[in-house]
Amino acid sequence: MEKEFDVIVIGAGPGGYVAAIRAAQLGKSVACIEKWKNPAGELKLGGTCLNVGCIPSKALLASSEAFETASRHLRDHGILVSNIKINIAQMHARKDTIVNKMTKGIEFLFRKNKITWLKGHGSFTGKTNTSYRLNIAGEDSSEFVSARDVIIATGSKARHLPFLKVDNQIIVDNEGALTFNSVPKKLAVIGAGVIGLELGSLWRRLGADVTVLEAAPSFLSTADQRVAKEAWKQFAQQGLKIHLGVQIDKVQVIDNTVTILYSYKNVHAQKLEADRLIVSIGRVPNTDNLGLEAIGLAVNNHGFIDVDHCCRTKLPGIYAIGDIVRGPMLAHKAEDEGVLVAEIIDGQKPHIDYNCIPWVIYTEPEIAWVGKTESQLKAEGRQIKSGEFPFMANGRALAMNHSNGFIKMIADVNTDELLGVHIVAANASDLISEAVVAMEFRASSEDIARICHPHPSLSEVMREAALAVDGRALNM
Ligand code: FAD
Ligand code: NAI
């Protein structure tokens, strides 16, 4: 007999698996359809984030940071080590263990919350007055299920250049870039966005000579330009070469060498040769063979599913969340939308403030921000004031040998409400949370300036930046 559920979720990435857990917590009978297979052919939950995104990239970034610390920075502490080597196979084994632990953890959470994992490719086959019908095409089985509410959380996939085949050996996207079995001598990267900078930094730390080719004329245009300028300076000092305003003309692979021909500053036929090429030019929503037409739903001109501020599509009972809808392609945004939709299905009235979703780039120094940049606010005609405080004037940062960077805080000139906080520094990913909380509560810079912060800690820079908004930083 055909199985019926209250809620069916398609996709078990951070959007889908969190939606499934929250719906189950609220007493719904829930199934989640997921087809992901790892290179060993095992079915896995967790989506892009756990399998080929956030988690494996951060595991490798941590390994490469440890290697760079050992090779370059331990001597500052008087610790002398020699003959430092990296065992790449061991580094990947560590990463795979972490990924496995996390994906198994979601299997455990599914069992704990009595969520049925339907293994295979899900697609809509039709609808009745009260429910939607879906097919799950498994390895050697096919079944039909139905539910009154369906949450589409099918995520995204790497965007490729139309003329360039990604083989994930020599020319790779994020998947291949996380599995190189040796350190490339010369690594080319197309796209100086989040993946280009994180994975470019990762392989540079391990010894690759990395050149990043970026089409845009300015660097990190979504970040505050003061932060982008500081990051540019730091990356250049580290040896990461970034060319802006580049147009890729042709890429060819001969005898395991990639040759990239590109135009730069109106000079054509510039040539870059490398052992490997990472293509990281953004991601596109994934709605492949989802059968949307069977229920009368279509994607928009950019491939996204249109939704309102509550992730509702135009069809009652059909919701879409995460990378397949508008907004930043971030795991925590997908998770929040998963909770939001499950609670809406339950009849609650939750809310997401998209202005308070933090961004983090896990380079060294890390870059993190929440709210708006100075140029966005000026373009909106807002009257603003801002303060900055450098980490080199913070005792803990000096003690940790991480004194690069600063925090910049922007507030409304009249009300003092916080409008944006921008960090370029070690541990920015953790430091930004204080600013997120403050902005969610619509705090003023004065609120942060008056709160006691532990000493010595990097968080004191947040307080000093808040004081600097009013021109009264204490330690500068
Ligand atoms: P996904 O995680 O893409 O999951 C979608 C799932 O749906 C997949 O498992 C897929 O197999 C499944 N699926 C699709 N279609 C079907 C179907 N028809 N039937 C059954 N199953 C289907 N974000 C951060 O916030 N922080 C980071 O540090 C970060 N690092 C990243 C690093 C890299 C290298 C990459 C590529 C991304 C990173 N991201 C990061 C982005 C983050 O991974 C995504 O924003 C997030 O995974 C989106 O979640 P999602 O649930 O929408 O989709
Ligand atoms: P991105 O959008 O961050 O950057 C893509 C870059 O490629 C842009 O700078 C763009 O101008 C450039 N570009 C586009 N076409 C080009 C071309 N033809 N030639 C040269 N440059 C070109 O996309 P990216 O880095 O691929 O990452 C995808 C998404 O994954 C991110 O936007 C982010 O949402 C998510 N992600 C998040 C992370 C985090 O939160 N720390 C880490 C990694 C990915």
Automatic annotation (TrEMBL):
MF terms in GO: dihydrolipoyl dehydrogenase (NADH) activity; flavin adenine dinucleotide binding
A Pfam family reported for this protein in Swiss-Prot or TrEMBL: Pyr_redox_2
Residue ranges the record marks as coiled coil: none
Source species, domain of life: Bacteria
PROSITE patterns associated with the record: PYRIDINE_REDOX_1
Broad enzyme group: oxidoreductase
Keywords: Cytoplasm, Disulfide bond, FAD, Flavoprotein, NAD, Oxidoreductase, Redox-active center
The protein's Enzyme Commission number: 1.8.1.4
Major localisation: cytoplasm
GO cellular component: cytoplasm
Catalytic function, reaction form: N(6)-[(R)-dihydrolipoyl]-L-lysyl-[protein] + NAD(+) = N(6)-[(R)-lipoyl]-L-lysyl-[protein] + NADH + H(+)
Domain FAD/NAD(P)-binding per the UniProt entry, residue ranges: 5-338
Cofactor mode of binding and number, as noted: Binds 1 FAD per subunit.
Subcellular location: Cytoplasm
Cofactor dependence: FAD
Domain Pyridine nucleotide-disulphide oxidoreductase dimerisation: 357-466
Gene Ontology BP, a term: 2-oxoglutarate metabolic process
Additional notes on this entry: The active site is a redox-active disulfide bond.
Homology family: Belongs to the class-I pyridine nucleotide-disulfide oxidoreductase family.
NCBIfam families in the record: lipoamide_DH (TIGR01350)
Protein name: Dihydrolipoyl dehydrogenase
Organism of derivation: Candidatus Vallotiella hemipterorum
